[in-house]
Design brief:
The structure holds two protein chains of two kinds.
Chain A lengths: L6 H25 L3 H9 L6 H24 L3 H25 L17 H21 L5 H9 L1
Helix pairs in contact in A: 1-3, 1-5, 2-3, 3-4, 4-5
Chain B lengths: L3 H26 L13 E2 L6 E7 L4 H16 L4 E7 L9 H13 L3 H10 L1 H4 L8 H8 L4 H9 L1 H16 L7 E4 L2 E4 H11 L1 H7 L3
Parallel strand pairs in B: 2-3
Antiparallel strand pairs in B: 1-3, 2-4, 4-5
Helix pairs in contact in B: 2-9, 3-4, 3-7
The chains are: A mainly alpha, B alpha+beta.
């Protein structure tokens, strides 16, 4: 591979691996556990009913896993990064409304139901991930499948 | 019209999605999913025992009653070498009171008498298992063991108790449990007491070696 890496490329690659890794882990932990477990966590936000919570619990972990893998591999890097950032914004809104309403949430459902940080900690963690997403969007093409395909065609 | 580059990216994405989905589904199918811990009162035998059995059971199922006796014998014989974890898997479509029984047994467990209550449930399953109305046996057994029945009733209706039971059923479903009793002996599946004994024989040397004299 003759790709000449710049510092920005390396930073972008690390950003992709960081955000993608978190999403792969988060999706895998939940996809390997009963969906009902995550559904209970979703229900505790008191935004949707049990049926919709179960539907979301059956869907979201897979989406997290797939988008995480695509980001790590660097396929459709920018659209995938935007999609992940939108998911993070949505998670922030859920966490924020729960915090404002003073809901008692024992497990945020972020990384399965085994344990959870406080809402505040999860909120800050997601903010940090959003910032890293910005770096992945701007400089995330280093060592990506997208760039490899571009070179292949050139 | 999709250009070649986009087509290749789409093909790569599809491959990533396909293989990752397949890997997760296979991990589920082969029970590579880690077990959720059961409450202390449903664990028997030392935590570091070399052979661990996880049993999915239903108090109204006759085969489970039979298996319960076998498990008790094994725990006596291989004391120290075996740990048994009891998980609820009430077959709701055929046993209308199994979920209640499971909840009451757990609540008896909170009062320190899970095993005794479970034994009474198994012994009397013909009396309450297919009752048309709420069986009185649940209260009779609690009183026989001098348990606080109002506390058991309150506990059985608590969201935490119901949540624990529902998650255990979901875990069983995910592991492909469709009949009771289903055992996982160091991860190997066995259905019914005959398969349990057959599988356990494979661990006989380990069990005997670790058993306390």
């Amino acid at each position: 591979m003759n790709e000449k890496l710049t510092r920005q490329d390396i930073g972008g690659l690390i950003a992709r691996l960081a955000v993608g890794g978190v999403f792969i882990y988060s999706g895998l932990v939940k996809a390997l556990a009963p969906a009902e477990e995550f559904a209970f966590a979703i229900e505790s936000y008191k935004v949707v009913g049990p049926q919709l919570a179960l539907l979301a619990a059956n869907t979201v972990p897979w989406v997290e896993l797939w988008t995480g893998l695509l980001l790590v591999a660097g396929v459709f890097t920018r659209p995938v990064t935007v999609f992940i950032a939108l998911m993070l914004v949505f998670f922030e809104l859920l966490l924020g409304q729960a915090w404002l309403r003073g809901l008692e949430i024992t497990s945020c459902g972020c990384f399965g139901a085994a344990g959870s940080n406080s809402l505040g900690q999860e909120f800050i963690q997601n903010l940090a991930l959003l910032l890293i997403c910005a770096a992945a969007f701007k400089h995330g093409l280093g060592f990506s499948a997208d760039r490899a395909l571009e070179k292949h065609e050139a | 019209m999709i250009d070649t580059r986009t087509g290749r990216k789409l093909a790569l994405s599809a491959a990533i999605i396909f293989f990752s989905t397949l890997a997760v589904l296979l991990a589920r199918q082969f029970s590579l999913v880690p077990d959720k811990p059961a409450p202390d009162w449903r664990n028997f035998g030392p935590e570091n025992a070399p052979v661990k059995i996880v049993e999915y059971t239903d108090f109204a199922c006759p085969a489970c009653r039979h298996a319960s006796g076998k498990i008790d014998e094994m725990l006596k014989v291989f004391n120290g070498g075996l740990r048994v974890t009891f998980k609820h898997y009430p077959l709701l479509n055929i046993h209308p009171w199994s979920l209640h029984a499971a909840a009451y047994a757990d609540c008896a467990g909170e009062q320190g008498r899970f095993k005794e209550y479970a034994d009474l449930l198994f012994e009397g399953q013909e009396k309450w298992g297919l009752a048309k109305t709420m069986p009185g046996e649940f209260e009779i057994y609690a009183k026989k063991l001098k348990l606080d029945w109002p506390a058991i009733l309150a506990c059985s209706e608590a969201p935490a108790t119901l949540k624990r039971l529902k998650l255990e059923i979901a875990e069983g479903e995910m592991k492909g449990v469709s009949a009771t009793p289903t055992f996982f002996i160091n991860g190997r599946r066995a259905v019914g007491s005959a398969q349990l004994i057959d599988q356990a024989m494979k661990f006989d040397n380990i069990l005997r070696g670790a058993a306390k004299p």
